[in-house]
Amino acid sequence: MSSKDIGFVGHGGRSIHERVAEYSEGEFSSLPSLELNSQQANECIGLGYGFFSPLEGFLNRNDTELVCNEMSLSDGTLWSIPINLNASYETLKTKGIREGEDIVLTYEKRPLALLSLEEMFDFDLEWMARKVYGTGDQKHPGVRRTLMQKGKFLSGKVELINEPRFRPPYDRFWLTPRQHFELYKMKGWQHIVAHQTRNVPHTGHEWLMKYCWFAANEDLPVDEPRTGVLVSAVIGEKRTGDYIDEAIVLGQAELGNAGYFNPNVFA
């Protein structure tokens, strides 16, 4: 599998790698395939582009147990939530999927990634949910998502074989880790105020971001700002009463469009 060092250091103090390659679809016609749901597809994309650095693929049994028990990978890196891929027993049998093979992972019937399958294993999902989230209450979205996983977990390295496609307006807000770091470098940022939210902006958000920006930039020249504000909008799975995705991303972007922040310090 291809692996490209993007030239930046990530979580755990190790270089971030992209695992993205271009193939013709005919190259995979002889390989078994596994259709992913949206959550699994997003995690494949995260693994391929290095969002989950230093992970190179879906966790094996040993690392899964360590993350649940000790919030740590086998190499000692802090990690709090296991990244696993599951498939039903029926699917594994029907597809003839076996350890040691390459598997094509598809999303919406389109090849997305290649999995080098190293291990398949069963796991106690109720135990996992309680260890990771501290509760077994299915009202918790993480618990509910964990308990919905059926069959076996599949572990192995992942390589993207098709770049993901996003519909407007999300396409213009999509940046890989490499693109993020290139943006920081272009803007000359030395410090970053990171604001993650699943809401539209409100007065509390505005005050918090500006206060943190001034605090982080206090020893630096204001006329040449070296501190940036990065907004990470959380979209996708919803609870009753949550804002729709479009309102979240477009509302946060409007802070920059309306001049609340200088364009050089907002992204």
| Number of individual domains | 2
Reading the helices and strands in chain order gives EEEHEHEHEEHHEHEHEH
Cα radius of gyration in angstroms: 20 Å
Q: Kindly state the number of beta strands.
A: 10
Query: What's the CATH first level of the largest domain?
Result: Alpha Beta
- Structural category is alpha+beta
Q: What is the overall number of helices?
A: 8
CATH topology value of the largest domain: Sulfate adenylyltransferase
Second-tier CATH architecture of the largest domain = Roll
Molecular shape:
globular
Strand residue content: 15-25%
CATH superfamily of the largest domain: Sulfate adenylyltransferase
- What percentage of residues falls in helices of 4 or more residues? 25-40%
**How far do the termini sit from each other?**
33 Å
Mean pLDDT: 90
pLDDT < 50 runs, ≥5 residues: none
Could you describe the largest sheet, including whether it forms a barrel? Answer: 6 strands, mixed
Structural summary, described in words:
By secondary structure, the chain is α+β, with helices and mostly antiparallel strands. It has two domains: 4-160, Roll (Sulfate adenylyltransferase); 170-265, Rossmann fold (3-Layer(aba) Sandwich). It has helices at residues 38-49, 61-70, 89-95, 125-133, 141-147, 177-187, 203-216, 245-257; strands spanning 4-9, 15-18, 33-35, 57-58, 85-87, 102-107, 110-121, 152-160, 191-197, 227-233. The strands form three sheets. Strands 3, 4, 5, 6, 7 and 8 form a six-stranded mixed beta sheet that branches. α4 (125-133) runs antiparallel to α5 (141-147).
